[in-house]
Predict the 3D structure of the following.
Amino acid sequence: MGGMVEFAANGKGSGGYLATSASGSGPGVIVIQEWWGLVDHVKDVADRFANEGFVALAPDMYHGETATSPDDAGKLMMALNIEQTERDLRGAVDYLLAREEVTGDRVGTVGFCMGGQLSLFAACANAKVGACVDFYGIHPNVTPDLASLQAPVLGFFAEKDGFVTPEVARKLEADLRAAGKQVEITIFEGADHAFFNDTRAEVYHADCAAECWTRMLAFYRRHLG
């Protein structure tokens, strides 16, 4: 359904996987990878959005590199230049909004693990983000400016997550509420980190993933039109 595209990011080239709406047009969604890179699972999520009437772009945050081991993935994640990452995400948003298939003047963001934190980061940095979804977001070098956030946030976290504990999720929710932001965070009992990733049988939780998918689609349709 989709394919690789190139777009400008602060005068430089960047790339990503674009999946266009099965209905021909629809709201835009930026899909942000886990620490593994722009792998097939992320592309599949973009395709799933397209099947639901969205136009989805998954930017390649590692610019061609991917990882198969946690050690390599961690190295790639920690090597991210955060300033360049923000420019890449801004370029992805602008590219998506400029496409004729995309309806509305704002996009949604969603990310998983590292991408979850980058989803919130992008929403805080860019008023063109109209709805933000954060799946168990974490990155030690990324600190979203919550005061600048304009988009509502939907967050999904896991009870058994040793990376992003329930305490971390509750603190994020409290901080967002204290800043006067619209937020809804759910911590799923019995679920572990990366429970949405159906390519990882050891952590995938089908029921939780299905609930998140349904709620996320409704969230985007409500806020993006």
Remarks:
- The CA atoms of residues 107 and 158 lie 26 Å apart.
- Residues 3-224 form a domain with the Rossmann fold fold (CATH 3.40.50.1820).
